[in-house]
C-alpha cells in the first residue's frame, strides 16, 4: 500500500466533508483546492488505524445526518397521510352539504310556488279576508306554524351555506398543508440520498482489507461502549418482565432479523429503525408514532433501571435512532443503510432515554 493510497483516503474524507457541507442551504464557498496528485515514487505507507478512524467518524456523521433526515421524511409522510384522509372526509362533507343545500332550496322554492298559486297574497292577507270565524282561528294557527317553519327553513339554509363554506375553506387549508409536506418530503429525500451517496463514495475508496479493518474498528468501538455501560452496574438493576404486548412486539422484531435496512421502509421486506419498532408494536395491538422523535415525545418515559423487554431505547441527543430492548442488555434494531436488522448491545450507542409503548 503506497503513500498514494493513504493520500487518496485522506483526500476522500476531506472531499466528502466538503461535499456534505456544500449541500447545506444558504452557505457560499470558494472553489476547492485541486485534488493532490498521488505520488508514484513515495515509499509504501499503509493506511493507518488513525486514517480509518477518521473514515469511521465521518461515516458515523453521514449516516447520523441521513437518520435525522429520514425521521423528517417519515414525519412528513405520516402527516401527508393524515391530511389526505382529512381531505377525503372533507370532500364527502362538501358533497353531502351541497345535497342538503339543494334540498333546502327546493323546499324554499316549493313554498314560493305555493304562494304564487294563492294569487301572490300572503297567508296573513287571506286570513283577514276570511268571514268564517272557525276558518279564521284555524288559519291563524297555520300561519304561526308556517312562520316558524319558514324561520326554521331560513336558519337551516343559512347553516348549510355556512357549513359548506367552512368545509371548502378547510379543504383548501389541508391542500396547502399537504403541498407543504410534499416539499418537506422532497427536501428530506434529497438530504438522505446526498448523505448516503457520500458515505458510499467514501467506503468505495477502501480496499477489501481496509473495509475489514474498518468493520473491526466499528465492532471494537461498539464493544467498548457496551462494556463501559455494563461496567456501570446498570444491568444488575434491570429485572422487569415483559408484558404480553411486549412479548408479542419482541417476537415480531426477532422474526425480522437479517432483513435489510431501507430508509422510509416499514416492512415487510425491509425497515428503517422506527419502521421496525412501530410495526412491531402495531402487530402487538398497540400502535405508536411512526418516528423515533415522536416516539420519544409521546410515549411514557421510564428509567433505564426499570426497562423491560419490548421497551424502546432512544439514542443520541436528537432522538434520531431507536431500538427495542429484548433483555440481558441487548437490543434489536435496524442500524443504517448497508446493514440488516440485527442484535446489538443496548449500551453500544449514546442512550437518550427509554420509553414504554404499553404504559
Topology:
Layout (H helix, E strand, L loop, with lengths): L2 H20 L26 H69 L5 H6 L4 H72 L3 H24 L12 H12 L17 H11 L8 H7 L1 E3 L9 E4 L5 E7 L2 E4 L8 E4 L5 E6 L3
Antiparallel strand pairs: 1-6, 2-3, 2-6, 3-4, 4-5
Helix pairs in contact: 1-2, 1-4, 2-4, 2-5, 6-7
Structure explained in plain terms:
- It is a single chain.
- It is built from eight helices and six strands; from the N terminus they run H-H-H-H-H-H-H-H-E-E-E-E-E-E.
- It has helices at residues 3-22, 49-117, 123-128, 133-204, 208-231, 244-255, 273-283, 292-298, and strands spanning 300-302, 312-315, 321-327, 330-333, 342-345, 351-356.
- A six-stranded antiparallel sheet has the order 1-6-2-3-4-5.
- A hairpin with a 2-residue loop joins strand 3 (321-327) and strand 4 (330-333).
- Helix 1 runs antiparallel to helix 4 and helix 2 (49-117) runs antiparallel to helix 4.
**N to C succession of SSEs:** HHHHHHHHEEEEEE
User: What strand line-up does the widest sheet have?
Assistant: 1-6-2-3-4-5
What sort of overall outline do the alpha carbons produce when their principal axes are compared? elongated
Strand coverage percent? 5-15%
Helix content: 55-70%
Distance between the termini: 56 Å
Q: How many DSSP H or I helices?
A: 8
Count the E strands: 6
Main sheet overview: 6 strands, antiparallel
Helix-strand category: alpha+beta
Mean pLDDT: 78
Amino acid at each position: 500500500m503506497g503513500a498514494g493510497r493513504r493520500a487518496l483516503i485522506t483526500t476522500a474524507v476531506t472531499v466528502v466533508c466538503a461535499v456534505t457541507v456544500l449541500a447545506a442551504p444558504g452557505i457560499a464557498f470558494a472553489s476547492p483546492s485541486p485534488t493532490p496528485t498521488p505520488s508514484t515514487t513515495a515509499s509504501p505507507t499503509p493506511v493507518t488505524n488513525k486514517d480509518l478512524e477518521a473514515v469511521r467518524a465521518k461515516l458515523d456523521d453521514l449516516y447520523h445526518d441521513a437518520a435525522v433526515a429520514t425521521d423528517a421524511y417519515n414525519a412528513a409522510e405520516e402527516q401527508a397521510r393524515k391530511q389526505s384522509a382529512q381531505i377525503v372526509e372533507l370532500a364527502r362533507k362538501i358533497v353531502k352539504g351541497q345535497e342538503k343545500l339543494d334540498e333546502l332550496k327546493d323546499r324554499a322554492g316549493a313554498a314560493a310556488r305555493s304562494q304564487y298559486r294563492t294569487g301572490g297574497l300572503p297567508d296573513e292577507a287571506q286570513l283577514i279576508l276570511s268571514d268564517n270565524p272557525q276558518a279564521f282561528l284555524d288559519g291563524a294557527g297555520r300561519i304561526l306554524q308556517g312562520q316558524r317553519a319558514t324561520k326554521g327553513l331560513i336558519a337551516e339554509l343559512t347553516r348549510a351555506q355556512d357549513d359548506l363554506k367552512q368545509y371548502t375553506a378547510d379543504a383548501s387549508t389541508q391542500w396547502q398543508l399537504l403541498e407543504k409536506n410534499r416539499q418537506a418530503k422532497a427536501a428530506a429525500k434529497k438530504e438522505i440520498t446526498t448523505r448516503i451517496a457520500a458515505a458510499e463514495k467514501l467506503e468505495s475508496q477502501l480496499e477489501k482489507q481496509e473495509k475489514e479493518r474498518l468493520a473491526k474498528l466499528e465492532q471494537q468501538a461498539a464493544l467498548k461502549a457496551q462494556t463501559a455501560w455494563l461496567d456501570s452496574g446498570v444491568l444488575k438493576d434491570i429485572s422487569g418482565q415483559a408484558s404480553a404486548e411486549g412479548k408479542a412486539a419482541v417476537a415480531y422484531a426477532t422474526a425480522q432479523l437479517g432483513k435489510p435496512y431501507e430508509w422510509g421502509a416499514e416492512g415487510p421486506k425491509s425497515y428503517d429503525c422506527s419502521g421496525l419498532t412501530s410495526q412491531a408494536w402495531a402487530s402487538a395491538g398497540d400502535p405508536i408514532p411512526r418516528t423515533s422523535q415522536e416516539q420519544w415525545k409521546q410515549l411514557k418515559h421510564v428509567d433505564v433501571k426499570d426497562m423491560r423487554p419490548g421497551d424502546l431505547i432512544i439514542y443520541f441527543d436528537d432522538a434520531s435512532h431507536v431500538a427495542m430492548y429484548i433483555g440481558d442488555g441487548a437490543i434489536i434494531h435496524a442500524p443504517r443503510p448497508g446493514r440488516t436488522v440485527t442484535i446489538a448491545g443496548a449500551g453500544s450507542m449514546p442512550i437518550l432515554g427509554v420509553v414504554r409503548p404499553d404504559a
